[in-house]
Amino acid sequence: MRVLLPISLDRWRNPIATLLRACVLANPEMEFHSYSNPMSEEDRQLGAGFWSLPNVVQAPQTKLALTRYDLVHTASITWHNQAAVVAAKWRSFHHAQYLATINLQVGPTDGGDWNLLQSAEALADGLVSVSEAAGSAVRNRCQDRFHGVIPNGFDAGYFDPSIDDDAALPEHVRNFPSGSFALYLGALEPRKNPDFVVELARRHPEISFVGVGYVHPLGRHYEPMVRSLPNYHWLGHVDRRCVRALLRHAGVLLFPSEREGLALSVIEALGMGVPVIGQPKSSMPELIDHDVNGKLFDISEIDQWSHAMLSYLGRSLEERREHRAKVRPGIVSTYDWPIIGRMYGELYRKMGA
After folding, report:
1. What is the pLDDT, as a whole number, of residue 51?
2. How far is C-alpha 215 from the geometric centre of its chain's CA atoms?
3. What's 96's DSSP letter?
4. For the whole prediction, is pTM greater than 0.85?
């Protein structure tokens, strides 16, 4: 089976590329075609090994458009991806099947995203979603083609709390006592409510906050906010080594997003044994079990967030270890990437039969 993945696969902090790389690695008997566009030194180094795999073909996008495929799989919906699907179907005389992974909860009020989703639903021969929240409406509209939920995953071998890699941390963060700081992992964009974390930092000048993420075009106005407080250390976009080291030492992850498909950063945090505070909205209750691996509060309940955050930051090293031992095994057994990749392989074979 020849499968087209119309995305740059060598971006290690991109959750879409990461999911599709898992499909490549878990299905060595299939031939995958994609293209290269690394964004960091980590991407370039790890990409060299990835592109040497015998079942993956790197080619320019122009060549990809002229090749025949049995299946096209997209894990995000863009006009670029939809054009790739149309080209693949045309080139194969409509033999190529299209599998669309729905990775965000989208509705009629979402403008361009809604138009893209409608386009994908019209073209797709099969659809899955990364969560019940992202897929419930799609399931109703596409009952004959919806194959259920295949969640996002994480690299359990890499995001392992036993790995000591403190050299990846910025020097000033390296000096923070382990478990003493609150962490924000997410882009600066409106739906993720980064200003809420700024408000928590303003209310708690005695606590250190660390933030990581890129600046979304719709969230440029947040950047001055996250840089305005002496106790909020905004690191911007960092590589996976730094994220892993931050999760190893963070006392809590703050994730006040309004809407998520199934957040990779939350899965990574839970896999590292870090408790997460989020909102009881969208897919968050599918990951965060209140009072078990974290807490769920609306952002209108900022006092509850403060109380829960301080409680987690006040835990002893032994309490943190006990929490990690309780939470991590279940996350690994459910979300480790090889498990997710094999689930997609089964679906590829089913659609290609």
Report:
1. 97
2. 16
3. S
4. yes
